[in-house]
Amino acid sequence: MAWLHNLLLVLISIPVKWLVKANTIPTDLNKELGIDPTKPIVYLLRSHSATDQIALQMSADALNLPKPSSRITIVGEQHKACLFLLEPKSVLTRKVKRTNIDQQFAHLFHLHRQDPTLDLQIVPVSIFWGRAPGKKLSGWSDIIANQVSPSWLRKFFIVLFLGRDNFVCYSKAVSSRAIANLPGTDAELAHKLIRLAGTHFHRRRQGITGPYLLEKQELYNTVLGSQAVRSAIGSEADSKNISYQNAQLQAKKYIDEIAGDYREGLIRLGDRVLTKIWHKIYNGIEVKNAEKVRMLAQNGHEIIYVPCHRSHMDYLLLTYVIYHEGLVTPHIAAGINLNFWPIGGVLRKAGAFFLRRSFAGNKLYTAVFREYLELLFNKGYSVKYYPEGGRSRTGRLLPPKTGMLAMTLQGLIKGINRPVSIVPVYIGYEHVMEVSSYLQELTGSTKKKESIFHIFSAIRKLKNYGYGFLNFGEPINLTNYLDKSVSNWRELQLAEPDKKPQWLTPVVNELANNVMERINQAAAISGMSLCAICLLSAKKHALTEDELLLAIEHLLTLLAKSPYSEVSSIPDIGAKKLLENTLKLNKFEVSEDSFGRIISLRDKNAVPLTYYRNNILHLFALPGLLAAIIFARHSISRDETKQLVTKLYPLLQRELFIYLSLEQALEYSDSLIETMLAMGLLSCNGDNLSPPAPSSKAYYSVWLLNRSIQETLHRYAVVLTLLQRETSMSRSVLEKRSQQFAQRLASLHGISSPEFFDKNVLSTFISALKENHLVESGLEGQLLHCDKSEALRLDVIGLISPEIAQRIQQI
Predict the structure, then answer these.
(1) Helix, strand, coil share of the chain (percent; to 5)
(2) 784 Cβ contact list (under 8 Å, min separation 6)
(3) How confident is residue 138, by pLDDT bands cut at 50, 70 and 90?
(4) What does the alpha-carbon distance between residue 353 and residue 391 come to, in Å, rounded to a whole number?
(5) Residue 684: helix, strand or coil by DSSP?
(6) What is the mean pLDDT of the chain?
(7) What pLDDT was estimated at residue 613?
């Protein structure tokens, strides 16, 4: 009767294909899952459903996989290529019956005994229609809820309403030979495989739909009933001389202010709207390393996404990417400034929960917020928050705020019954719509309050944004991290469960820096950021097209042969195509004379483009430092070069959140030197390193690398020279004076970077000086000039251009 079954599939597929759009996860099965389309495949589905088979068929056709509806030959016998664990429910009963899959698998393993070379790829495939997480209480909407094995009537409504939201999720192939070689009878092996498959399908469902939604009353009862919140309510009543009931009512209002109200239907609608928007404004969204996160989800981890914050677009883009990568969309920590009508309600239904910029000693609010966050963790919801606390105005990562990380660790040590992993996320754009307003704020303008009118204004400008980039970084397993940092943290917590651990603050600070370093570790290079770093390094912010093309090619080759990290990404197209795409964004002035085209920065664009350069400046910090050292000294031994790198790298690492330790940085420097020598970017005479000959085509590219680090070295020279002249200064005075002189220097020498005199950047450098014991502290806390700071100052002055050095010496 196989022919009849296939005929029915063909007849049903005609209308179904009009209703269904199969979204495949992941898209590269060979790379991520090791599935080889040239070898025999047996597809394993959870329920026997014609529409599931059609969706799988559509996906398999798109991926050039063997047809699920075909039959495969095994030891001379014809077998189905698609097997099922469960039969669909009857329309009249709720019982779910098993198929005869145990007999099929037992016979399959029997055939393996006959043919020792037989090996099949058993590929579990989960088919989802919509992504509804479900509720504990049933309702009329369950008519189309995504159930384990729905009846044909329920499936009719599911396909009708959710056909465009179909997801075909493949899992790693299981080797039938590996199972057959295990000890046990054929029936026992079949039973074991079926049991493992059932567990896998259950975990996969949880990984893509998430846990049950919280009912409002359950939320109130859990948060208000916790010991910490009840204690805070009592303290609130005593301190404000109000009744316990009124204090409890205030706590309830805080819950309403904070809590998200997730609606899966809004996510589906948002997916369709955002797909159209992305297609309109972006040439593409490039996503890397998502397989690392999928693996965590399949292994039952609580996932906390911790991205950098460039733009309000981040909220939408990361959630959209997570949804399309087959992962549970997270609950998002959003600033209370975004809770305005009607956007606040929309964001709340998309999973946002709101927090105030400052808890300002409000113990009741703090207790409620912390308990709500711990509830999300314990229920298994993934969460997303921004460690910088706000959007970066300069394109660099901001010093991290540690409040949310501290609450996360406190929730972990109180007890979360599953592994918790932080996933750093790098987000980059070739156009950030807020850059002009960022520059106004950096020059002293007041930040404008968000409103619906700003949203409409932004929508009108949505066009020609180039590419967007989203790279997932190396995850941090928090339990393992704590075990390494504080090996006896469990014993300490048991001894004093109600007290804040003394080790918490230093561990959180270290973790916060680690997170920022891992965000930058996953950086993505774009055409815009490369053109920005080259043109801003040129003295007149102008290059011939040939010079710019060659510089781009040299930088790409350098990072391809000596990669910054395994999780960072560079464009996979050539320099010429990359430049062609970037020029279409209309950020540059292109003129032409009898010798060819000249590409330059318009005066009004020079400052905004520092934003995109700063996104990737950390990738070129070490190559730029090496170029600066070798250009300044003209001929210098490798040992002397490494000595200067050893002195300056810890300061660059702190400022730019570079993930490499000093030892790793020195090894990477050796790799860069060898690559630069092989490319002709450096020359050597014995053990001495020199710049290439001025007549060499590579000379200008290395000179641009040298220039890319100069502004950083100028800033270092300003701070160190001020301290040397005064010999003793308070930190606040040093920061203020450094900022004033850096601003003056920028005006005199045409330095266009707003971060050159940014207080945060200067403060980070001064902190790095203290941490590395390059300055001394006086009895009253003032900073003291010393031999080490003087030696560093002389080294830095020796690496910058003479005219800048002279100006700084005249402070």
Answers:
(1) 55, 15, 30
(2) 727, 728, 775, 776, 777, 778
(3) very low
(4) 18
(5) strand
(6) 89
(7) 96
pLDDT number for residue 137: 45
Q: Can you tell me whether residue 516 is helix, strand or coil?
A: helix
Distance in angstroms (rounded) separating the CA atoms of residues 811 and 807: 7
Per-position DSSP letters for 600-612, written without gaps between them: EE-HHHHHHHHHH
Residue 658: pLDDT over 60: yes
Rounded-to-integer distance, Cα 476 and Cα 454, Å: 37
The number of C-alpha atoms within 13 Å of 151 and in the hemisphere containing its C-beta is: 11
The reported pLDDT for the residue numbered 158 is 76
Give 578's contacts (C-beta < 8 A, 6+ positions apart): 527, 530, 552, 556, 571
Using pLDDT thresholds of 50, 70 and 90, give the confidence band for residue 484.
very high
**HSE-up of residue 528 (Cα within 13 Å, Cβ side):** 26
Report the pLDDT value the prediction gives residue 91, as an integer from 0 to 100: 59
User: Mean pLDDT throughout 430-451?
Assistant: 77
Q: Is the pLDDT of residue 87 over 90?
A: no
Contact yes or no for 394/656 (Cβ under 8 A):
no
Of 765, 656, 719, the closest CA to residue 398 belongs to 656
**CB–CB of 127/166 below 8 Å?**
yes
For β-strands 636-637 and 688-690, DSSP reports them as antiparallel
Buried/exposed code over 693-726 (b: 16+ C-beta within 10 A; e: otherwise): eeeeebebbbbbbbbbbbbbbbbbbbbbbbbeeb
Provide the residue ranges of all domains of the chain, joining segments of one domain with +: 2-209, 258-521, 527-708, 710-809
DSSP state of 565: -
Angstrom distance (rounded) from CA 662 to CA 659: 10
Q: Does domain 258-521 have CATH number 1.10.10?
A: no
Q: Give the per-residue pLDDT at 211.
A: 82
Over residues 238-250, the mean pLDDT reads 94
- 324: number of Cβ within 10 Å: 18
The continuous run of DSSP H or E covering 638 comes out as: helix 638-656
Distance from C-alpha of 748 to C-alpha of 716, rounded to nearest angstrom: 17
Confidence category of residue 259, pLDDT binned at 50, 70, 90: very high
φ/ψ (deg, to 5) at 800 = -105, 165
Q: What are the φ and ψ backbone dihedral angles of 635, each rounded to 5 degrees?
A: -150, 120
pLDDT at 142: 45
pLDDT band at 41 (very low <50, low <70, confident <90, very high): very high
- Are residues 617 and 534 in contact, defined by beta-carbon separation less than 8 angstroms? no
Give the span between the Cα atoms of 528 and 586, in whole angstroms.
11
pLDDT bracket for residue 21 (50, 70, 90)? confident
pLDDT of residue 7: 61
- What is the average per-residue pLDDT within 627-641? 95
Which among 332-341, 605-614, 669-678 has the top mean pLDDT? 669-678
Q: Are strands 420-429 and 383-384 parallel, antiparallel or unpaired?
A: unpaired
Q: Is pTM beyond 0.70 here?
A: yes
Q: Is 710-809 a domain of CATH 1.10.10? A: yes
- The span from the CA of 308 to the CA of 613, in Å, is 16
Distance separating alpha carbons of residues 626 and 673, to the nearest angstrom: 8
Residue 119 burial by Cβ neighbours in a 10 Å radius (0-12, 13-18, 19+): middle
Residue pair 289/567 in contact by the 8 Å Cβ criterion: yes
Among 641, 644, 628, 618, residue whose Cα is nearest residue 559: 618
Distance CA 644, CA 650 (A): 11
Find the helix packing angle between 787-797 and 710-726, rounded to 10°.
140
